[in-house]
Amino acid sequence: MSSKVKLTGRVIFKGDPGYEAARKNWDPHTDRFPKVFVFAQKTQDVANAIRWARQNHIPLRARSGRHALEGNLSQINGGIVIDVSEMKKITLDKKNGTVIVETGNQVGRIVDTLARQRYMAPFGDSPTVGIGGITPGGGIGPLQRTTGLICDNLIGLEMVDAKGRVIRANHKQNSDLLWASRGGGGGNFGIYTKYKFKVLPAPAKATVFSITWPWEQFEEVVRKWQVWAPNASNKLGSELSVGPKKGGNVSMLGIYLGSKVKALHQLKPILSVGTPTQKVIRYLPYTEATKFMLAPDPVLTQRYSNQFSSGFGKQPFPDKAYKVMREFLEKAEGGTPAGFFFLNWGGAVSRVAPQATAFYWRQAKYYVEWNSSWVKPSHAARNIALARNTRKKLKPYIVGSYINVPDQGIKCPGPVYYGKNYARLKKIKAKYDPKNVFNNPQSIPPA
């Protein structure tokens, strides 16, 4: 590293025009002031930025979609942010049923591009999340019972390591890195620049649904959902959200890869609970169905700051868990996106053994997350404590936590995020990043 490395790509130093726009993140309370942003245009720009950071002894962070739920995962005071969001190529190979995507693509763009070519790509609950970050963390979403997690479809990758070397991994070469990149979390091993996914044919049409109930009925709806959802058809994916008591409601959004008649048959048990105030059930061309599921998410105009936490439910909540839930929802600030979110599990997700990929939490019945939100900075401490205390109280009823919905209140987070895969991940970390150049407050340390 003797010769001086120059930064390449679109480079914005503190004080340059465009710095404030570069600094904005999905969550406004992640207020960091990096020394420089590098918007990479190609893999070499990423390599140069890493080498420059090492030469100048400056900490670095990788960024793809600006959705990191704890802002110090993709931003750092006085450091360099290596942003891949301008690397957006998508190359579909229909003959082999694969696609190569650069890691700056947003999930919605990939889903839409492939849907128009009659292919299905799994997605989460937002179109603007970067594929670069969601993939290595697992990538959960409503299609997962059919397609598996986003990372389950990852079959190859290109990554720049801590020395600025370009490394390729697939089942034949560096297969340990591929294993670790399927659930081991972003920002641990290097900066990913390209992913290769297998793709599935999309149905011509699908049924989407959106059902709303009054807030007061949340307990009976959640009770029924937790028993119904894990046993519904693997062609059905549903997300259940419960908002704050002040002004919130209960809503279910989902998709069934089949006809409306069959969808209604599947939905019957949950539709007979409580008194739904709104029911939208539509049989749509697949491209429209994905747009229904991925409502526009204005990334950089968020007014709310959030504290999230997450886990996996092994069995339906007992009465005590509802008491905790109610307490949280009564204290959460009204008129904000605060609340509980459940996603059904099983199907293709559970058919993969917990140690076959780095994503460990395969054997759950459902996924659960909750977040408290606030606008005034003076409300931050109270809301962070609310989310974290709720985690302590729910601990008897959940296992693990989802690395893409991190909670920095978790002490000794490794086994919580990665279960029994943590030891192996530390060894792989030691091989690819022995000096721990890629680190953040909850990153994997080298063995």
Strand order, biggest sheet? 15-12-14-13-17-18-16-19
Integer average pLDDT: 94
What class would the helix/strand composition place it in? alpha+beta
Low-pLDDT stretches are none
Summarize the amount of helix as a percent range. 25-40%
Radius of gyration: 21 Å
Global geometry: globular
What kind of assembly state do the chains in view correspond to?
single chain
> For the terminal residues, how far apart are their CA atoms?
25 Å
**Total helical segments:** 13
- How many beta-strand segments? 19
Largest sheet: 8 strands, antiparallel
Proportion of beta-strand residues: 15-25%
Describe this structure in words.
Helix 3 (107-115) packs antiparallel against helix 9 (286-293). Strand 13 (236-242) and strand 14 (249-256) form a beta hairpin. The longest helix is centred in the C-terminal third of the chain and has 15 residues, at 380-394. The model has no long low-confidence stretch (mean pLDDT 94). The protein is an alpha+beta fold and 447 residues long. Helices cover 27% and strands 24% of the residues. The strands form 4 sheets. The chain has an 8-stranded antiparallel β-sheet. Strands 5-6-10-8-9 form a 5-stranded antiparallel β-sheet. A 4-stranded mixed β-sheet has the order 1-2-4-3.
